[in-house]
Every structure is written in structure tokens, then in C-alpha cells.
Amino acid sequence: MMKQLQPIKILDGIQNEQFATAQKWWWCSKILPFVGLILSLLVVVCDLSWLSSVIVVFAILSVLVEWKFDYLWEIAQTLHRKHEFWDSLGWQISKRERYVSSILKQPGKKD
User: Fold this and answer.
1) By CB neighbour count within 10 A (0-12 exposed, 13-18 middle, 19+ buried), where does 59 fall?
2) Alpha-carbon 91 to chain mean position
3) Which of 25, 24, 9, 21 is nearest to 107 (CA)?
4) At how many degrees (to 10) do helices 7-46 and 95-104 cross?
5) Does the pLDDT at position 2 exceed 60?
6) d(CA 52, CA 96)
7) pLDDT category, 60, cuts 50, 70, 90?
8) Residue 1 has what pLDDT?
9) pTM over 0.85
10) Which residues of 36-52 are buried (b: 16+ CB within 10 A; e: fewer)?
11) 98 and 13 in contact (C-beta within 8 Å)?
12) 106 pLDDT exceeds 80?
């Protein structure tokens, strides 16, 4: 028999999933510039001029990953604010909200 989740628990799970995904992107956004720095040191020390184009790619990827992190973090923050607002007023989550929340869930994750 399948256990029925309460709407608040569903929203909590989605919110936690969004924060976890955003955190993975945050780590990538911090590691990419560091790798770029190491590669630039290699260009200077070992005179590997061909590596300069790779450093440019890492710089561009770093900005794009930072943007993706900000986007995912904002979604998670919006869900958090919504949950806190509903919880403070004692409102119930509507069927439409549960449907939208189920769409936002990451594929392959179990409840």
C-alpha cells in the first residue's frame, strides 16, 4: 500500500531538492575559477601558450554556472518563502499547487 504524503511534506521535499541541486551548481561555480587560476599559472610557468584558449573557456563556463546557480537558488528561495507564508497563515495547499509541485520534482528521485 502506497503511503500518502501531506501537501506540506511534498513542498518541503521539493524545496530541499532545489536547495541540494543549487548547492551542487554552487560548488561547480567555485571550482571552475580555481581550475582556471591553476591553468593560468601553468601558462606562465611552463610557457604553454595553447592553454590560454582553455582558460577562456573555463572563464565563460564559470559565469554560466554561476548564473545557473543563481537561477536554481532563487527557485528554492521562492518555494521557501511560499511555504513559510502558507504555514504562518495555516492555509492548505491546493490541488493545482500540488500538481505544479510534482512537475518541479527532479526525475529519478524517490519520495
Assistant:
1) middle
2) 27
3) 21
4) 30
5) no
6) 51
7) very high
8) 44
9) no
10) beebbeeeeeeeeeeee
11) no
12) no
